[in-house]
Amino acid sequence: MSKPIKSVAVSIGLGFSLLASSLLAPSVAHAEGEIRIAEQFGIVYLLLNVVRDQNLIEKHGKEEGIEIKVDWTQLSGGAAVNDALLSGSIDIAGAGVGPLLTIWDRTHGKQNVKAVASLGNFPYYLVSNNPQVKTIADFTEKDRIAVPAVGVSVQSRFLQYAAAKQWGDKDFNRLDKYTIAVPHPDATAALIAGGTELTGHFSNPPFQDQALKNPKVHVVLNTYDLLGPNSPTVLFATEKFRNENPKTYKAFIEALTEAAEFAQNDKGAAADTYIRVTKAKIDRADLLKIIDNPQFEFSVTPKNTYPLAEFLYRVGALKNKPESWKDYFFQDAKPLQGS
């Protein structure tokens, strides 16, 4: 008899709601020389781990002639991250392309939130411990699929994109009723343990790799098969922060670029950084094997984000149509050559 996971999810959700509420408290606008960054869980945030570990923002700030105070916050789910950004509680938001497009659309002509950079290119897996589920068409009312944020997270958007390919645009949200918001670490633990109604998890590395170590867990969908190599996770900010803090913003971009070069060129040191900063309980050899995946690319340049943006406008999830990826990415002194 399966145990319901709803009570677990509710308690988790309440915890993050309280955290989000604390972040939503009114904050005083700050001057040049301070930056508040929100990240989430997983290897996809490794560039931020490197930036933090090596104090790269502070380093590049000094090159700009300023001392920069950096504040780090960890949240779960694009909805909480977006709320924190719009409340003025954070300056740089780390989340999926899905939440980026949602907030870009919502603030178009107002706060004008846009992406600052990509965090790299990584395949995301939809995994399941239900042997009957071979494709997304096999999920039923008995299944629940964990995502970071229902309907908004990039995992939710990938699932909608896959549903539209399977059943047509009119049924793009056909699987939404099976999704439930659970942070990646908790969803992974539940999937491995089994015995609950949570039988699917749209994950990211290293959690998807940890789940797949259980022989009862298998891949249902690979986002690279769905869209090709793409940048699922990005960083974004308001136009106001970018315009009012040019030196701090530039120092952040330079720090991120340096971190990308470091992670891409020294996978061993990158693995050590991830373990040191996140305190993750993962074997170094296993982590290095994940990071050394030839499909992984640590880069600030966005790749193949526009198909998702075009899809979301087509099905009515976006009111404003982006003509290209450049509409929702800031173009700086060194413009990104992305897609």
UniProtKB/TrEMBL annotation:
Residues 1-31 form the signal peptide. The keyword Translocase does not apply. Pfam families: NMT1_2. Keywords: Signal. It comes from the Bacteria. PANTHER family: ABC TRANSPORTER SUBSTRATE-BINDING PROTEIN, ALIPHATIC SULFONATES-BINDING PROTEIN-RELATED. This is Nitrate ABC transporter substrate-binding protein. It comes from Pseudomonas fluorescens.
